[in-house]
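Letters spell out the chain; the tokens describe the backbone. To illustrate:

===
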Amino acid sequence: MHKHDLVRQSLIHAARRIFVRFGFEKTTMNEIAMEARKGKSSLYYYFASKEEVFQAVVEHEAEILKEKIYDELNSPCDVLERLRKYIVVRFTGIKELGNLYNALRNDLLTHLEFIQKARHKYDELELSFIINLLQEGNDNGVFQVPDIPNTARTLHMTIKSVELPLLLSYETEIFEERLNSLIDIFFYGVVKR
């Protein structure tokens, strides 16, 4: 990696830590520069504004999450287990990547044009993951989904609707227990068979 890229990456990593600690609104360029142990002029050499730094951080975290999800989706197990893994990795990944979650959920950030684009891009990516899994499940006789696009949108909407309450379960055991219950409801419903 070129020195220019290494410095930029170190600034992004420092900014991640500061944004998680203070949030977007309260973070200053000076704090990011201090965290990176660089001069403020170095920070401005790579980024024109705090918004541009935040955009780079969110894009970096989105890439991390996407890679984690791709790894799980390419694991050698059946489609039902991969769908379960996708949901687990999605929630745990977002929980670990505070800036991405903040950008995807925080209405105060909607004035930032790139946030709207990031939300839309991430939603489309998630829908494609779900559609592909549902299609594979149908093809293999594991699922019986008559309208895959509509079912994928419903599942995606359901996942997003429980995101905040689930992620606010700070205790790891409670988070995992609730996540597993949620997945069981997705897969098997609540009707006794």
About this structure: The two ends are 57 Å apart (CA to CA).
